[in-house]
Amino acid sequence: MHPRPSPIAASLYTLRDLNVDVVIMHGPHGCCFRTGRLLEGDGVRVLTTAMAENDFIFGASEKLEETLKKANEMFHPKLVGIVGTCASMIIGEDLKEAAQNVDIDAVVLPVESHGGFGEGDNTEGAIAVLEVASEYDVISKEEAGRQIEMLKLATEIEKTRGMAQGDYIKPNFGDSKEKIAKLIIEKIKEGKNVAFVLNAKKETAYLFSDVLNVDYSSILNNPSSDNKSNKPMIIANLDENIGLPRIRDHAKNIKKCLSSENIAIDYITGGLDEYPVSPRKCEEFLKNKDVDLVIVAGVPHALKIEDLDVESIAITDGPRLVEPLRNLGYNHVVAELDAHSKTLGTEKIVDSDFGVMLRTAIEWEKND
Fold it and tell me: Which residue among 50, 176, 229, 266 is least packed, with the fewest CB closer than 10 Å?
């Protein structure tokens, strides 16, 4: 009942993850403008054909061809994506024909998605890109198939455990970050076993991995010992050998940042695009460990916290996910805001509000 991300935006982000140079949106100039502007910060040039009222009646294939020519002259791209919108797709514009009519060296991917594409799920737009990318040999059919399977599982998770369950969910900004930070620090000081789980997707991992990038040595029971029995455990979906090119780079970059701070990952559950299935490995791993507190950051509703007999904290980027996470069994929920906008264009871990709060609370403990 409440607004959800559209297939058009998902198409744009997936083209970005394929490292396209230019995206042309075939529709009105205001269509998905915020996503387009954000992607400029990630190095993608986003253009529009700026369809107007007459174009809705008579068509705008010439506008698309002219925009494609202009993009080629301005940016000399190697890979271009053309994304349909509600306006162009409803009147039946042929994106493929327009691309064929323009003689340029770049590979052009015509993606016929729109706001109500398929079942209207945002993942439908990403699937459309993957299918076209496979058809044009930008990625293999096997990789496209694996990606599509992950996206379908992600949709199922959102519809059964997330904010796409059908009913209206009132936004909620979660528990006090100061209170939860103090809770984590108290557990560590008491010698309890604490596990941080990163189960994030795409570039948002740069923000959610900030909670892993914290030095707890000053509050450990025996900070001078090399064998810190209550040092927090780190579990993460940061396999750098899985996913589209940009996604693999995100995992490499985050691991490099953590390594530079001498922070080791104890167990890797999968890649950043495997967030719908990587929790299964995490759950099995945790069941064999004596853990008192689990903190899950990124897409915590993909992990079956109800199957783990442990105190738990979820860190999410969706105010509308706070109540569903509590209903799943999380004892505490922390909400981060604007994860996408804070992480576009970066190659390093960025400060999260909760990560900053954790570091601040540790300084308070040191100064007491």
Answer: 229
